UniProtKB/TrEMBL annotation:
Family in the record: Belongs to the REXO1/REXO3 family.
Alphabetical list of SMART domains matching this protein: EXOIII
Lineage per the UniProt record: Eukaryota, Metazoa, Ecdysozoa, Arthropoda, Hexapoda
Protein name according to UniProt: Exonuclease domain-containing protein
Family matches, as Gene3D superfamilies: Ribonuclease H-like superfamily/Ribonuclease H
A GO cellular component entry from the record: nucleus
Length: 646
C-alpha cells in the first residue's frame, strides 16, 4: 500500500508541476521584464555620468569608465517574485487552492469543447472532395445529404444513417440545420469562376454531388422522399393491407419508381405490370428488385452522367432500350469467374447464365485482354488447359448478352455488382441473393452463397477441389430466388423478419415506396421551415401531405416567393426560429449567359454570406449548387458554425 501511495503522490506532484507551468512562465517573464528595465535605467545613468564628466573636463580622459561587476543585489532590487516553493525541476509548485482553481478552469474549458457538435468526413466523403483529381473523385448522391438532415434532428432514430460518408457528433447540440439549394448552377460554373465565390470558398468542405437530372429525377423529389424501411412497411401493411392500398389511402406513402436507364413504357407493359404474378410466385418478383440507391450502395455500375466518362469508361448497357419490368418478366441467374492478369487486376474468364427452368442459357470461357498470371483455380475453377484454345473476348460476350437477353430481363445473382464490373456492363433490373437473404440481422454483413444454399436448399456447393463452378453458382442463386418467391418477402431475411430498421440502405421490397423526409425530421418535436421560389414550395408541401392545404401543420411550415431574393430573405429571417430551414431558388439559363453570369455568381455568393450571418451558433450550414442538365454535376458546401472557445 505504501508503494501505491508513493506513486499517487508522485503523479499528483507531476500534475501540479505541469499545471503550474503557465503561471510560472508568466511570473518569470514579468521578473525578466523588471530586470531589463532596471538594467536600462543603470545604463542610462552611467551614460549621463559619462556625458557630465566629459563636459566638466576640458580634455578627454584616456581612462576607461570602470563598470562594476559586483553581483550583489541592490537594496532597491526587489528580486524574483515569491511564487512558492520550487520543485525538483526548478519550477514553482502550486498550493492546494491554486492547483484546484487551475484544474477546475481547465476542466470547464474541456467540457465546453466536448459539448459542441463536431462534423467530419469519412472516406467516402473525402473521396467526393473537389480537391481530388477528377479521375479519383467519387461523387455523393442527394440521398446522402438527405440522410444527414434526418440524422441531425433525430439521431439514431433516423431510418437511414449518413455514416457511409460522414459523422456528426453531438447532433442534439445543433441549434439549426440550414440548407440553401441553388438549382441550375453546377460544379463547372463554380470551378470556372471560383474567384467570384469568396464566401463559398470559406466553407470547410466542398463535395461533388450527382445531379438528379443525370438519372431523370429532380431535386425536390429526391430530397423529400425517403424509402420505406422494413418496420415502416410492416406498419402500413398491417394498417392498409398492402402497400398499394397505403399509397391510395394514406397521405404519408408515395409510389416512386425511378430509373437511370432508358426505359420504354407502353400500354402493353402497363397492363402486364398491373397484372397477376407468375403462377409459382406468391408475390410480385418486382418487389425483390434493388432500388437505384441500393445499387449505388452495392457498387453497381450505373449510367450516370459524369461517372460514365470517368469511373465507368468502356462500360456498355445490356440493351439500348429497356421494357418496363413486370411480375411476369423473365429471370436469368448470372455468375462470372475471374483470373488475375499482368495488370494486377481480376479479368473475366468465364460467364454462365441459367434460366428459370434451371437450364443453361449461356456459358462460355473468355480470353482476357492481358496475360493471365494467376488462374486462382481454387476459387475460379479455371486452369491453363481450359484456356488454351479460347479466343472469345469480352467484347464478344457483351454482344452476345445484348442480343440474347430480353428487354425486361431480371438478372439474379450473388453480389452481382462484381459480375457486372467483370463484364463491364450495366443493367437496371437486378435481384441480389446476398441482399434478399440475410442470416446476420445486419444488411452490411453478407452471408456466403455456400451457406445460404446449405441452410435453405439443403444442398452443398463449392466443395470441389477443382474450384468453383459458375454454372453451379448460377443454379443456386436461381433456386434461392424461386424459393423466396414461393414463401414471402420476409422469408430468409433476419433483418426484416426480426422487425429491425435497416440502417445502411433501404430494404428490398420497398424501393418503390417512400415517405416524407420532412415528417421524419419533425418526429422529435423539431420544427421545419421551407421557402421556395414560385411552385417549388408547393412541391415540398405535396411530399409532406398529398392532400395538404394551407401553409403547414405547425411543425412544418412553407413559404413561397416570386423572386430568389425573396426566398433568401425569408430563409435568413427564419434561420434562428426553426431546427431545419430549407431555401430553394432557381437560376435561369438567361442569368448564366456571358453578359450577366458574373453578377449572378456574385449574388449567389452574397446569399451565402447572408445565411451564414443570420443563423445561430452552433449550426450546420449547407449550400447546394444543384447541377445543370448540360454542364454536369452539382457541388455541396458545408460549414459548421460554432463558438470558438479560448
Amino acid at each position: 500500500m505504501k508503494a501505491v501511495s508513493s506513486k499517487r503522490k508522485d503523479r499528483l506532484e507531476n500534475k501540479k508541476r505541469k499545471m503550474a507551468a503557465l503561471v510560472n512562465i508568466t511570473q518569470l517573464n514579468e521578473y525578466d521584464r523588471a530586470n531589463n528595465k532596471t538594467k536600462m535605467a543603470r545604463l542610462e545613468e552611467t551614460s549621463t555620468i559619462i556625458e557630465d564628466s566629459n563636459q566638466t573636463k576640458p580634455e578627454p580622459s584616456t581612462k576607461k569608465v570602470k563598470i562594476s561587476h559586483n553581483t550583489e543585489k541592490s537594496p532597491c532590487d526587489p528580486g524574483p517574485p515569491l511564487i512558492g516553493d520550487l520543485g525538483p525541476s526548478g519550477k514553482p509548485k502550486l498550493n492546494g487552492a491554486e492547483f484546484s482553481e487551475l484544474k477546475k478552469m481547465l476542466r470547464n474549458k474541456t467540457n465546453r469543447i466536448r459539448q459542441q457538435p463536431c462534423f467530419r468526413l469519412r472516406d467516402m466523403g473525402e473521396n467526393a472532395s473537389v480537391a481530388l483529381d477528377l479521375e479519383l473523385r467519387m461523387p455523393l448522391f442527394l440521398s446522402d445529404l438527405q440522410h444527414l438532415i434526418m440524422y441531425s434532428q433525430i439521431g439514431p432514430h433516423s431510418p437511414y444513417s449518413p455514416a457511409r460518408w460522414c459523422a456528426l457528433d453531438k447532433y442534439n447540440k445543433l441549434a439549426n440545420f440550414n440548407l440553401l439549394i441553388v438549382e441550375n448552377v453546377s460544379l463547372y460554373h463554380f470551378s470556372a469562376h471560383e474567384s467570384m465565390f469568396p464566401n463559398l470558398n470559406n466553407f470547410t468542405h466542398q463535395l461533388e454531388v450527382v445531379t438528379p437530372k443525370a438519372y431523370m429525377s429532380d431535386i425536390v423529389r429526391d430530397l423529400s422522399m425517403v424509402p420505406l424501411t422494413g418496420t415502416q412497411m410492416k406498419k402500413f401493411v398491417d394498417k392498409f393491407g398492402t402497400l398499394e392500398s397505403a399509397v391510395t389511402q394514406s397521405t404519408e406513402v408515395f409510389d416512386t419508381l425511378k430509373n437511370s436507364f432508358p426505359i420504354e413504357r407502353t400500354e402493353e407493359d402497363a397492363d402486364q405490370h398491373n397484372g397477376n404474378v407468375a403462377v409459382a410466385d406468391k408475390f410480385s418478383r418486382t418487389k425483390l428488385l434493388l432500388s437505384g440507391w441500393q445499387m449505388v450502395e452495392e457498387n453497381f455500375p450505373l449510367p450516370i452522367k459524369g461517372l460514365m466518362e470517368r469511373k465507368y469508361r468502356g462500360y456498355v448497357l445490356t440493351k439500348d432500350l429497356y421494357g418496363d419490368v413486370t411480375p411476369s418478366s423473365p429471370m436469368y441467374a448470372l455468375d462470372c469467374e475471374m483470373c488475375r492478369t499482368s495488370t494486377g487486376d481480376l479479368e473475366l474468364t468465364r460467364v454462365s447464365v441459367v434460366d428459370e427452368n434451371l437450364k443453361t442459357f449461356y456459358d462460355t470461357l473468355v480470353k482476357p485482354d492481358n496475360k493471365i498470371v494467376d488462374y486462382l483455380t481454387q476459387y475460379s475453377g479455371i486452369n491453363a488447359k481450359m484456356m488454351k484454345n479460347v479466343t472469345k473476348k469480352l467484347a464478344d460476350v457483351q454482344q452476345d448478352l445484348r442480343r440474347l437477353l430480353p428487354k425486361d430481363a431480371i438478372i439474379v445473382g450473388q453480389s452481382l455488382s462484381n459480375d457486372f464490373h467483370a463484364l463491364k456492363m450495366m443493367h437496371p433490373y437486378v435481384i441480389d441473393t446476398s441482399v434478399i437473404f440475410n442470416l446476420t440481422g445486419d444488411r452490411t454483413r453478407k452471408t456466403k452463397l455456400q451457406t445460404l444454399t446449405r441452410e435453405f436448399l439443403r444442398e452443398r456447393i463449392q466443395e470441389s477441389k477443382k474450384g468453383h463452378c459458375s454454372t453451379e453458382d448460377s443454379l443456386a442463386c436461381m433456386k434461392l430466388t424461386q424459393l423466396k418467391l414461393k414463401k414471402s418477402v420476409f422469408y430468409g431475411d433476419a433483418v426484416m423478419g426480426g422487425g429491425n430498421d435497416v440502417r445502411a440502405y433501404p430494404d428490398m421490397a420497398t424501393s418503390q415506396y417512400a415517405t416524407s423526409m420532412l415528417r421524419q425530421c419533425a418526429k422529435m418535436d423539431s420544427t421545419v421551415h421551407v421557402a421556395g421560389v414560385d411552385e417549388l414550395a408547393a412541391k415540398y408541401r405535396f411530399y409532406v401531405d398529398k392532400n395538404a392545404e394551407g401553409r403547414g401543420d405547425g411543425q412544418i411550415t412553407f413559404a413561397s416567393a416570386h423572386t430568389n431574393d425573396g426566398v433568401v430573405e425569408d430563409l435568413c429571417r427564419n434561420a434562428g426560429k426553426h431546427n431545419v430551414n430549407i431555401g430553394h431558388v432557381r437560376v435561369s439559363d438567361g442569368d448564366l449567359c456571358d453578359i450577366s453570369r458574373s453578377e449572378t455568381f456574385r449574388v449567389i455568393d452574397n446569399w451565402t454570406k447572408k445565411l451564414n450571418d443570420s443563423c445561430k451558433m452552433p449550426s450546420l450550414n449547407v449550400v447546394l449548387l444543384g447541377g445543370h442538365q448540360d454542364s454536369g454535376n452539382g457541388v455541396c458546401f458545408m460549414f459548421l458554425k460554432k463558438e470558438f472557445i479560448k
